[in-house]
Amino acid sequence: MTNETIVTAAMLAIGDELLSGRTKDKNIGHLADVLLLSGIDLKEVRIVADDEDAIVSALNALRGQYDYVFTSGGIGPTHDDITADAIAKAFGVACEHEAEAMRLMAEMYARREMEFTEARQRMARMPVGSKHIANPVSTAPGFNIGNVYVMAGVPQVFQAMLDNVVPTLRTGTRMLSTAISCPYGEGEIGTPLGAIQKAHPDTSIGSYPRYIGQSFSTEIVVRGRSAELVETVAAEVRAMIEIIRQAKAKENQSAEA
């Protein structure tokens, strides 16, 4: 296919609370939705504990493989918020209190007549050379270094930061999709659907089983970057469904004879 631009991304969600189930992640789905609309393919998501070595290892693997990496969590004021330190280590730079972040936060706490404590000052630490990601919700900024965008874990803050990041990103050709309702279960369509997918490697065909009443059915979704190709494949899927329908009709007629 020609005139296609593919931009890829990964997400690294950080926090013991995610792995323990204490916190239910809401950021992965939101990021996926936003990137899809922006023409960026979210290719991988990893969840790691609040462990420096685990964060460094995962981040280095992801940032070398994808155009962008988005992280969530671990940039708060407590002892286990170690994301900034881990990312600084991954990039081989120091992690320091950043002057502009300190100023913004000091002014915010002064307005609220609250002490700008040592713990709160931790939220102004970031790897040397980072750029701010504005936080219109609670002021403490996220940061960008290289192709890595580091944002808060609190969904409201994560979403607000992401809104500021996305307009700055290089985007690709958007993925198009069409859904086809199929009255047959995956066991009946698996082989012919696989043949269609093999014949059209520039598309992605997903099948999503449903069980309603006492029968199985499937929603088939065709995805691709060319509207013409998506419709071509969709037409083949519809033809496959019709072939199965006709075969079943003949079976029923034979059984009744």
Number of continuous helical runs = 9
Give the overall average pLDDT.
Answer: 95
- Rough outline: elongated
Oligomer: single chain
Roughly how many Å is the radius of gyration?
24 Å
Low-confidence segments, given as residue ranges, are none
Distance between the termini: 51 Å
Helix proportion range: 40-55%
In spatial order, strands of the major sheet run 2-1-3-8-7-6
Largest sheet: 6 strands, mixed
- What's the β-strand tally? 11
Helix and strand composition category: alpha/beta
Secondary-structure element sequence? EHHEHEHEHHEEEEHEHEEH
Instruction: Bin the strand percentage.
Output: 25-35%
Care to give the gist of this entry?
The protein has 257 residues and is an alpha/beta fold.
